[in-house]
Amino acid sequence: MLILVSMDGVKIVGKEQIFKSFYLRHFRAVVGFCYSYTKSQPQALDMAQEAFCRLWQNWSPDYTVRNAQAFIYITAKNLCLNHLRHSKFKLEESETVEEELISEQTLLEEIIRQEAIEAVRQAVASLSGRKLQIVRLALEGHTNPEIAEKLGISLNTVKSAKKEAYAILGKYLGNEYLMLLVLEVLEKYSHF
What is the pTM for the complete model shown? Predict the structure, then answer.
């Protein structure tokens, strides 16, 4: 039987509650996963929603979180493949994309990436006030002096709040996720 534990340690029981918690925890990651293949936000949202509808229809009380994750990502992958097959791509382009999608390593890497991004989003959302503003601006690529100017605060205040925020994120996420956050930011802004 699947029993989820919320971030604050509360056990969640009951099909609707469990599904809702699973949906809220994984929906954006599944949308990101679909988007990485379709490059269309509306299509990615539709496919993610359809994948969750199918999970709901096939829900079993014996599912573990891993069973549900496997089901949702396999379903999303299949929906992506079907979309690409039926889209207006040239046959050769469709086959190339399909070969990439079928790669289990590619699939696993994208699942891990999307789940990590969602964990970071949730951790950042747990920050409040000035720390949240500063971290969001930093993730957008702003430098400390730019953040200070934009918020009308001193550079030392930015540095201090950033240090405190990253300490909170480190506790919330663990060092592995914090490194993923740094790598994601570096990759996103490496063209500068």
Answer: 0.56
